[in-house]
Amino acid sequence: IHTNPIQLDHDPIRTLGTVALIEDITEIRRLEKMRSDFVTNVSHELKTPLTSISGFVETLKAGAVEDEEVTMRFLDIIEIETDRLKRLINDILTLSEIENIETNLITHEIFPGDTLKEVADVITPIANSKEIELHTEVDLNLPTIYGNRDWFKQLIINLLDNAIKYTPPGGKVRLIAYKKYNNIIIIVKDTGIGIPKKDISRLFERFYRVDKARSRKVGGTGLGLAIVKHIVLSLNGRIKVNSEEGKGTEFTVIIPVNKEI
Ligand code: ADP
C-alpha cells in the first residue's frame, strides 16, 4: 500500500505525535539525570564508611593493635561504620524494590489497626530506651486496605523511627490513626527539634538531610523519607508535613480506602 508522504506530513495527528515525542525525550533525559545523580550519591555515601573502615584496619595492622585500649576503640568505630553500610544497602534495596513495577503489583489485605499496634509494640522499647514516651491512639477497627503489607509496616516504622531520632530525651511521640470519610488518617507527631520551613519541600528527596552531621550521628541514611514517599504513592495516598523549629513535627498520611483489586 502506498500512501502519499506529503499528505502525511500535514496530518494534524502526526504533528501532535511529534510534540508528544519531544516531551517524552525530555522526560527520559530527566529520569536519566535523576538516575545518574542517584548513582553518584550512592557511591559517595558508600565510600565514606568504607574509607573509614579501611583506614582503621590499616592503622591497626601498622602497629596500633599492640595497644588493647586503642584496638577496642578502633573496633567500635569499624562496627559502627559497618552497621551504617548495612543500613544504607538495605535502604537502597528497599527503594529499588518499591520502584519495581512488578513488586508494586503485589497486593495483600492490610488490617491497618493490627499492623499499627504491632509496629507500636516493637518501637515502644526503643523509644523508652531513649526516655521518650510513645502514645498510641489507634482505632483498632480501621477498614481493610489493599497493598503491600511489608511496605505499609515500613512506612510507619520509618516515620516513628525519625520521630524518635529527632526528639531529645524527655520528649513525646504520638501515633494516631482513625477513619475520616473514605480515608484512613495516620498521624505521627513528636515534640522534637522540628524542621526549618526552607527545608520542608525537599525532605522527601533521596539523601536530603537538614543537618547531615546530626543525621549521621543518629544513624540516618537520608533515604527514610524517600522510601516513605514511594510507599504512600503505592497506596494511592498523600503525605503532609507540619513542623515548627524547636517545638516538633507532625507527618499526616492520608490513604484512601480502596476496593479489592
Ligand atoms: P535520615 O536518615 O537522615 O533521617 P530521612 O529521609 O528519614 O533521612 O529524613 C530526611 C531529613 O528530614 C532528616 O535528615 C531530618 O533532617 C529531617 N527529619 C525527618 N523526620 C524528622 C522529624 N520527625 N523531626 C525533625 N526532622 C526530621
TrEMBL record:
Major location (coarse): membrane
Keywords: Kinase, Membrane, Phosphoprotein, Transferase, Transmembrane, Transmembrane helix, Two-component regulatory system
Subcellular location: Membrane
Domain Histidine kinase intervals: 41-259
Keyword Cell membrane: no
Superkingdom: Bacteria
GO molecular function, one term: kinase activity
Name of the protein in question: histidine kinase
Organism listed in the record: Alkaliphilus flagellatus
Section covered of the full-length record: 328 to 588 of 588
